[in-house]
Amino acid sequence: MSWQAILQQLAAGQQQLDRQTQEECARVRNNERVGIFCRSGCSNCCSLTVNCSFAEVLPLAGLINSEQRASLDKKIEKLREISQQASDLKDFLRRFREQLGGCPLLTADGSCGLYSQRPYSCRALLSTRNSNWCAVDFASLHPLEKQAFLSSLDPELVAFPTHYLAAPQEIALELEALLLLAMREQFGVALAGNFLYQIWLELEHRLSEIIPQGFAATRNYLEQNQLDLPFLLQLQGEAKEA
Questions:
Q1: Which of 75, 124, 188, 239 is at a distance of 20 to 30 A from 67, taking alpha carbons?
Q2: pLDDT value, residue 124
Q3: 25-78: per-residue pLDDT in tens?
Q4: What is the pLDDT of residue 209?
Q5: Do residues 187 and 214 touch, judged by C-beta distance below 8 A?
Q6: Does pLDDT of 9 surpass 70?
Q7: Cα(167)–Cα(143) distance, rounded to whole angstroms?
Q8: Strand arrangement of the beta sheet that strand 51-53 belongs to
Q9: Are residues 129 and 61 in contact, defined by beta-carbon separation less than 8 angstroms?
Q10: Nearest residue to 34 via CA among 160, 174, 219, 195
Q11: In the chain, what's the furthest Cα-to-Cα distance?
């Protein structure tokens, strides 16, 4: 079995999402109440947890240079620690942003080092507020500040209560679901989860060679190597009979 068809589907999905996102941005710019504030180097959102399908990390894994790999390895050590210390998902997300720092794929000027191959969820995150808001811990805001911010949002455009455009995120979720479906149909198993962790799994364990063996083989490999850590992976599908 081959990943070729799935990667072709991924590339087509990237083009579709980019095209539809550009169309949505053009529509939003005609709205006097809303703007798009994303710019190269405004990397505050790059400290957020990114989830994606495993297929989305494969092109990236083949492009990472030695400097990015060294940075990734350091982050993974901390990420594994965070995943085991967190009491629940909310705690994990807070620890991730506070303790892990920015994405290891960022360049010195804050730009994405592998921008053309970034996952759907990164492509779809478009801020309708100044990028400073992308770094705010809303749990720390005074209730009046929080209420003022929420009142300023257009719930018909954004993924309320966030300030990010809703339409691109909805498209991205649909495209990711189609990739996971393609994986289940091809291999009998689909894997999704933390973006950084999945890149590391491919680089360190060549998981793309395990997944075609089916659900049971993938699950057993992850469990035997103590890789199925809390909050980092979601395994779907059923074992295929030989």
A1: 124
A2: 96
A3: 888 877 666 788 888 888 999 999 999 999 999 999 999 999 999 999 999 999
A4: 97
A5: yes
A6: yes
A7: 28
A8: 51-53, 190-194, 233-236
A9: no
A10: 160
A11: 61
Tokens 């003022």 locate to 148
Domain that holds residue 42: 4-236
- The verdict on residue 242 lying in a domain is no
Average pLDDT of the chain is 92
Q: Is residue 54 domain-resident?
A: yes
- Specify if 19 maps to a domain: yes
Of 164, 43, 56, nearest in space to 104 by CA: 43
Total number of residues shown for the chain: 242
**CA-based nearest residue to 4, from 143, 183, 202:** 183
* Tens digit of each residue's pLDDT (9 = 90 or more) over 179-199: 999 999 999 999 999 999 999
Tokens of 100: 């892990």
CA angle 114, 115, 119 (to 5 degrees): 95
Spell out the residues 6+ positions from residue 142 whose beta carbon is closer than 8 angstroms to its own.
Answer: none
| 63 occurs within a structural domain | yes
| Cβ–Cβ under 8 Å, residues 54 and 198 | yes
Average pLDDT over residues 162-190: 96
- Joined tokens for residue 81: 């620690």
Inform me whether the pLDDT recorded for 114 exceeds 60: yes
pTM score, two decimals? 0.93
Number of compact structural domains in the chain: 1
Please classify residue 179 by burial: count the beta carbons closer than 10 Å to its beta carbon, then call 0-12 exposed, 13-18 middle and 19+ buried: buried
